Amino acid sequence: MDALKFYSYPSCTSCRRTKAWLTSQGVEFSEQHLFRETPDVNELRRILSLTTNGIDEILAKRSKEFKALNIDVEELTVNEFLNLVIEKPKLLRRPILTNGDKLVVGYNVEGLRGITDNKSEYQQQIS
After folding, report:
1. In this structure, are residues 78 and 59 in contact, taking their beta carbons and an 8 Å threshold?
2. Which residues are catalytic?
3. φ/ψ (deg, to 5) at 26
Protein backbone atom coordinates (compact mmCIF):
# COMPACT_ATOMS: atom_id res chain seq x y z
CA MET A 1 0.00 0.00 0.00
CA ASP A 2 1.34 3.43 -1.02
CA ALA A 3 1.05 6.64 0.97
CA LEU A 4 -2.35 8.29 0.76
CA LYS A 5 -2.61 10.74 -2.16
CA PHE A 6 -5.26 13.45 -1.84
CA TYR A 7 -6.20 15.22 -5.07
CA SER A 8 -8.13 18.32 -4.09
CA TYR A 9 -9.28 21.83 -4.85
CA PRO A 10 -9.19 24.15 -1.80
CA SER A 11 -12.47 25.92 -2.65
CA CYS A 12 -14.35 22.61 -2.83
CA THR A 13 -16.55 21.95 0.22
CA SER A 14 -16.13 18.18 -0.07
CA CYS A 15 -12.37 18.60 -0.26
CA ARG A 16 -12.31 20.76 2.87
CA ARG A 17 -14.52 18.29 4.75
CA THR A 18 -12.34 15.37 3.66
CA LYS A 19 -9.15 17.17 4.66
CA ALA A 20 -10.64 18.06 8.05
CA TRP A 21 -11.63 14.41 8.62
CA LEU A 22 -8.18 13.12 7.62
CA THR A 23 -6.49 15.67 9.87
CA SER A 24 -8.78 14.93 12.83
CA GLN A 25 -7.98 11.23 12.48
CA GLY A 26 -4.22 11.86 12.34
CA VAL A 27 -3.98 10.39 8.84
CA GLU A 28 -0.87 11.35 6.89
CA PHE A 29 -1.37 12.22 3.24
CA SER A 30 0.19 14.14 0.39
CA GLU A 31 -2.04 16.72 -1.23
CA GLN A 32 -2.06 17.67 -4.89
CA HIS A 33 -4.04 20.61 -6.29
CA LEU A 34 -6.15 19.13 -9.10
CA PHE A 35 -6.11 22.23 -11.28
CA ARG A 36 -2.56 23.53 -10.74
CA GLU A 37 -0.96 20.08 -10.76
CA THR A 38 -3.34 18.07 -12.91
CA PRO A 39 -2.54 14.35 -12.76
CA ASP A 40 -0.71 13.13 -15.84
CA VAL A 41 -1.95 10.36 -18.13
CA ASN A 42 -0.28 7.63 -16.07
CA GLU A 43 -1.77 8.91 -12.80
CA LEU A 44 -5.21 9.16 -14.39
CA ARG A 45 -4.92 5.63 -15.81
CA ARG A 46 -4.04 4.36 -12.35
CA ILE A 47 -7.00 6.20 -10.80
CA LEU A 48 -9.31 4.89 -13.52
CA SER A 49 -8.05 1.33 -12.97
CA LEU A 50 -9.17 1.54 -9.33
CA THR A 51 -12.75 2.57 -10.12
CA THR A 52 -15.66 0.18 -9.99
CA ASN A 53 -17.80 2.21 -12.40
CA GLY A 54 -15.10 3.43 -14.78
CA ILE A 55 -15.28 6.95 -16.17
CA ASP A 56 -18.64 7.66 -14.51
CA GLU A 57 -17.05 7.39 -11.07
CA ILE A 58 -14.55 10.21 -11.62
CA LEU A 59 -16.45 12.42 -14.07
CA ALA A 60 -18.21 15.52 -12.71
CA LYS A 61 -21.33 15.26 -14.87
CA ARG A 62 -23.12 18.07 -13.01
CA SER A 63 -20.30 20.57 -13.59
CA LYS A 64 -20.63 23.55 -15.88
CA GLU A 65 -17.60 22.34 -17.81
CA PHE A 66 -19.20 18.99 -18.55
CA LYS A 67 -22.51 20.51 -19.59
CA ALA A 68 -20.69 22.98 -21.87
CA LEU A 69 -18.90 20.16 -23.70
CA ASN A 70 -22.04 18.98 -25.40
CA ILE A 71 -20.44 15.63 -26.28
CA ASP A 72 -21.23 12.02 -25.50
CA VAL A 73 -18.41 10.87 -23.27
CA GLU A 74 -19.39 7.26 -23.93
CA GLU A 75 -18.20 7.70 -27.52
CA LEU A 76 -14.69 8.76 -26.46
CA THR A 77 -11.83 6.30 -26.28
CA VAL A 78 -10.04 6.06 -22.95
CA ASN A 79 -7.11 8.03 -24.37
CA GLU A 80 -9.44 10.76 -25.67
CA PHE A 81 -11.14 10.93 -22.27
CA LEU A 82 -7.83 11.16 -20.41
CA ASN A 83 -6.54 13.90 -22.70
CA LEU A 84 -9.81 15.80 -22.27
CA VAL A 85 -9.52 15.62 -18.48
CA ILE A 86 -5.91 16.82 -18.61
CA GLU A 87 -7.03 19.75 -20.75
CA LYS A 88 -10.10 20.43 -18.56
CA PRO A 89 -9.38 19.12 -15.03
CA LYS A 90 -12.62 20.64 -13.70
CA LEU A 91 -14.28 17.62 -15.33
CA LEU A 92 -12.96 15.50 -12.45
CA ARG A 93 -15.06 14.87 -9.37
CA ARG A 94 -13.34 15.84 -6.20
CA PRO A 95 -11.74 15.04 -3.96
CA ILE A 96 -10.02 11.92 -5.21
CA LEU A 97 -8.03 9.85 -2.71
CA THR A 98 -5.97 6.77 -3.38
CA ASN A 99 -3.51 4.63 -1.50
CA GLY A 100 -2.53 2.78 -4.65
CA ASP A 101 -4.89 -0.11 -3.95
CA LYS A 102 -8.16 1.64 -3.15
CA LEU A 103 -9.95 4.73 -4.38
CA VAL A 104 -12.40 7.13 -2.74
CA VAL A 105 -14.11 9.85 -4.76
CA GLY A 106 -16.00 12.61 -2.99
CA TYR A 107 -16.55 13.03 0.73
CA ASN A 108 -17.42 9.56 1.97
CA VAL A 109 -16.57 8.80 5.62
CA GLU A 110 -17.08 5.05 5.26
CA GLY A 111 -14.81 5.04 2.21
CA LEU A 112 -12.24 7.16 4.05
CA ARG A 113 -12.22 4.72 6.96
CA GLY A 114 -11.68 1.87 4.53
CA ILE A 115 -8.85 3.53 2.64
CA THR A 116 -7.08 4.69 5.82
CA ASP A 117 -7.66 1.46 7.75
CA ASN A 118 -9.26 3.65 10.44
CA LYS A 119 -12.12 1.29 11.13
CA SER A 120 -12.29 1.30 14.93
CA GLU A 121 -14.91 4.04 15.26
CA TYR A 122 -16.94 2.52 12.41
CA GLN A 123 -16.80 -0.94 13.98
CA GLN A 124 -18.05 0.49 17.29
CA GLN A 125 -20.96 2.18 15.50
CA ILE A 126 -22.17 -1.05 13.88
CA SER A 127 -21.69 -3.22 16.98
Report:
1. no
2. 12
3. 70, 25
Q: What is the pTM of this model?
A: 0.85
pLDDT 10s digits, 45-101: 999 999 998 999 999 998 899 989 988 888 999 999 999 999 999 999 999 999 999
User: What span, in angstroms and rounded, lies between the C-alpha atoms of 11 and 87?
Assistant: 20
What's the gap between Cα 3 and its chain centre?
Answer: 15
User: Cβ neighbours of residue 97 under 8 Å, at least 6 residues apart?
Assistant: 4, 5, 6, 7, 18, 29, 103, 104, 105, 112, 115
Between CA 83 and CA 89 the distance in angstroms is 10
Choose among 5, 8, 60: nearest CA to 33. Answer: 8
Least Cα distance to 12 among 105, 119, 117 occurs for: 105
